Write a sequence for this structure.
């Protein structure tokens, strides 16, 4: 029996959906092309009339301005592209540290909302409600003001052992780089390689015999032991570069500027409030029965949270968490308001010096777009890994 | 045989009381060792810090607008800075004698926003009300009618500017977001691609770069001799920015509509626009109202960024009020706390409202 085909319409009638779709798309493309042409034409014309030069050739000419802080030495004779590079590293420094700290603080706060202790619940609730309802720019300004006004001058800095906190920022001792540190790094690397094999073996053993090996403390011990072994075999260097309280400033040692500290602190505290909400809603999305079943099996609340609730909540948590990480990265651009030399601030200076608005803003957008896309790619990869393995 | 005597076994103890203050404290604060330790630690910390803060903020504070009183040793917060400068903080550079106008305008805007949030006003004529009130607010602020003097937009500032920027950009972003959200789910590849590029591009960059673009590059985009007010430029920037985020929220709602609804609409012979307008959007939009509220809250907070492109809304007006005045500059932290409270009151009440709306939306599911 042959199936009867539906009556075929003429393929190119006005009533055909495909044909109309094509027309709509052509109209859309035409409109957008005309719009882009209009803007490009105006821009080029305006730039010609006002005598604005264009092009990225300015990147190789000397920058002519100093940068307050950078991971490596930079002086004003170096070209613009290196200044931009300093800005990018400063942005990434804030973003990476901020993401790590935010995750820790936010998870603690989110889990704290389920604590059996009413005081912990209340403090977490108050924290979240207060910090997410005040603009992040205002919070950054407030932290910066606190760091620069309330803290004492360098001459009578708050001291905790070899650590100093003052208007000049936070100073702390750093180990002097020697071969011992190199050996410690090598030891750590070897320990990590060893851990990969250990974890594989432990998982196979668990699946074969059901005996659970330690999946956390043993690897940590191996890492510590590896780096300690490397450090000792490198001659166990003990030299520290400690900060010294000078007359006007605290010299030597490692130091963090008040700008860096206030951006990092402000962003972490603001974003942690959102991460806490993400974690809370993720945990709430896990069916109640799971927690009750865990209790019935005799797990205590901590174990039930760690082994049963959080792994399942993670699947719900990851996509909104990615958004929060991206928000933190993008909000780090507000550092320009308090003078931390991130990429926006550098671009702003370069823009004012060279007048090349289009190029400078394009560079900023490119930097953030690529960071955002990389972060989403990484998190998507992690998301597919932790998703439910369905048949 | 010995006589058996009836010997009752001891009665079981009464179940521990589970209601009342004492029982609540026992279970919630001193349930077990860990809980008790936490209670002692956090309670001790709070008992140590809160009285200190209260003493600084209230008991030792100087309330009068007299900066000499604030400089006395041992005085806490100096709220005199607010008493002295509140006109500039709230209204920016708006001419001093004319500041009743932004005050009335703010009142009108607030009344409009609050009434839009109440059920009695959810009628078609609400749109008309919006147009009328917005027109009245603009005329009140800008002047030139009814004998009001003309006040250029670059002198607008403070709270009215914050509220205007947030609500106008939200209103204008909504239709754009609706179209883009539908476009991202369209079957036509060209339209889908354009919408996706727009959303991902905007969401990938910070608002501040969009604002820089609006203030530095916008003049280059326009034909020669065609200038746009900086307020409008910034407004367009914020609108385009929040439209991308809103489009994602609406798309989430669209995706939650079961496919059967659309198939049923197709079976009934509805066209694409009829399906979207009568079947999909009413359900999807009702679902995303709470998220749209959250969107509005973040737009409200984001308006603080326009200080960076030199518009004096609440945050900018505060810096302007205090930076030029060396007598009051040391008390900036009190000023910051004051506007933080304003932002908090607005955002917190909006988030409470969004929770209420969420309950209303979910009410049909609870039965």
């Amino acid at each position: 029996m042959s199936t009867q085909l539906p009556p075929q319409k003429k393929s190119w009638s006005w009533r055909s959906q495909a044909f109309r779709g094509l027309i709509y798309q052509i109209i859309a493309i035409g409109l957008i092309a005309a719009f882009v042409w209009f803007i490009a034409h105006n821009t080029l014309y305006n730039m010609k009339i006002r005598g604005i030069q264009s092009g990225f050739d300015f990147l190789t000419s000397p920058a002519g301005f100093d940068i307050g802080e950078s991971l490596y030495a930079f002086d004003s004779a170096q070209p613009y592209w290196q200044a931009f590079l300093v800005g990018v590293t400063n942005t990434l420094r804030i973003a990476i540290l901020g993401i790590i700290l935010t995750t820790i603080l936010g998870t603690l706060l989110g889990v704290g909302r389920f604590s059996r202790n009413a005081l912990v619940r209340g403090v977490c609730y108050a924290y979240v409600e207060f910090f997410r309802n005040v603009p992040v720019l205002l919070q950054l300004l407030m932290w910066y003001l606190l760091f620069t006004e309330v803290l004492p001058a360098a001459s009578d800095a708050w001291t905790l052992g070899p650590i100093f906190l003052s208007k000049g920022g936070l100073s702390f001792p750093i180990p002097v780089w020697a071969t011992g540190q190199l050996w410690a790094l090598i030891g750590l690397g070897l320990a990590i390689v060893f851990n990969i094999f250990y974890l594989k073996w432990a998982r196979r053993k668990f699946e074969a015999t059901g005996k659970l090996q330690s999946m956390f403390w043993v690897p940590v011990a191996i890492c510590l032991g590896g780096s300690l072994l490397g450090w000792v075999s490198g001659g166990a260097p003990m030299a520290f570069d400690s900060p010294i309280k000078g007359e006007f400033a605290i010299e030597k040692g490692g130091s963090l500027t008040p700008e860096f500290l206030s951006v990092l602190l402000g962003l972490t505290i603001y974003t942690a409030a959102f991460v806490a909400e993400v974690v809370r809603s993720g945990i709430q999305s896990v069916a109640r029965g799971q927690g009750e079943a865990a209790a019935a099996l005799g797990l205590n609340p901590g174990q039930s949270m760690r082994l049963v609730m959080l792994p399942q909540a993670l699947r719900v948590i990851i996509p909104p968490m990615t958004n929060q990480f991206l928000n933190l990265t993008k909000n780090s651009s507000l550092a320009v308001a308090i003078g931390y030399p991130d990429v926006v601030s550098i671009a702003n200076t370069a823009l004012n010096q060279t007048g090349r608005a289009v190029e400078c803003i394009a560079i900023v957008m490119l930097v953030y777009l690529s960071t955002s896309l990389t972060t989403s790619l990484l998190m998507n990869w992690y998301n597919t890994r932790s998703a439910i393995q369905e048949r | 045989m010995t006589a058996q005597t009836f010997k009752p076994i001891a009665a079981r103890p009464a179940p521990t009381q589970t209601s009342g203050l004492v029982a609540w404290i026992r279970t919630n604060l001193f349930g077990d060792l860990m809980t008790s330790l936490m209670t002692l630690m956090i309670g001790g910390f709070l008992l140590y810090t809160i009285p200190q803060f209260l003493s600084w903020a209230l008991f030792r504070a100087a309330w009068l607008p007299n900066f000499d009183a604030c400089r006395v040793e041992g005085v806490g917060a100096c709220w005199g800075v607010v008493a002295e400068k509140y006109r500039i903080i709230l209204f920016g550079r708006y001419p001093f004698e004319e500041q009743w106008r932004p005050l009335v305008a703010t009142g009108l805007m607030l009344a409009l926003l609050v009434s839009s949030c109440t059920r009695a006003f959810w009628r078609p004529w609400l749109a008309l009300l919006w147009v009328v009130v917005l027109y009245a607010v603009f005329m009140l602020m800008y002047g030139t009618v009814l004998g009001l003097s003309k006040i250029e937009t670059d002198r607008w500032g403070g709270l009215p500017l914050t509220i205007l920027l947030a609500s106008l950009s939200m209103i204008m972003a909504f239709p754009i977001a609706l179209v883009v959200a539908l476009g991202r789910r369209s079957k036509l590849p060209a339209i889908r691609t354009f919408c996706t590029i727009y959303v991902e591009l905007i969401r990938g960059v910070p608002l501040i770069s969009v604002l820089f673009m609006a203030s530095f590059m916008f003049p280059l985009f326009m034909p020669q001799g065609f200038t746009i007010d900086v307020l409008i430029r910034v407004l367009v920037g914020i609108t385009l920015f929040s439209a991308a985020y809103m489009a994602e929220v609406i798309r989430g709602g669209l995706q939650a509509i079961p496919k059967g609804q659309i198939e049923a609409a197709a079976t009934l012979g509805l066209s694409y626009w009829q399906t979207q307008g009568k079947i999909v959007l009413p359900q999807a939009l009702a679902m995303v109202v709470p998220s749209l509220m959250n969107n509005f809250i973040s737009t409200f907070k984001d308006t603080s960024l326009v200080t960076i492109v030199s518009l004096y809304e609440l945050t900018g007006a505060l810096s302007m009020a205090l930076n030029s005045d060396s007598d009051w500059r040391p008390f900036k932290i009190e000023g910051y706390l004051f506007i933080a409270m304003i932002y908090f009151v607005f955002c917190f009440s909006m988030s409470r409202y969004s929770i209420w709306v969420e309950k209303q939306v979910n009410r049909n599911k609870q039965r």
About this structure: Chain B touches chain A through 55 residues (CB under 8 Å). The first helix of chain B runs from residue 21 to 29. DSSP finds 14 helices and no strands in chain B. The radius of gyration of chain B is 29 Å.
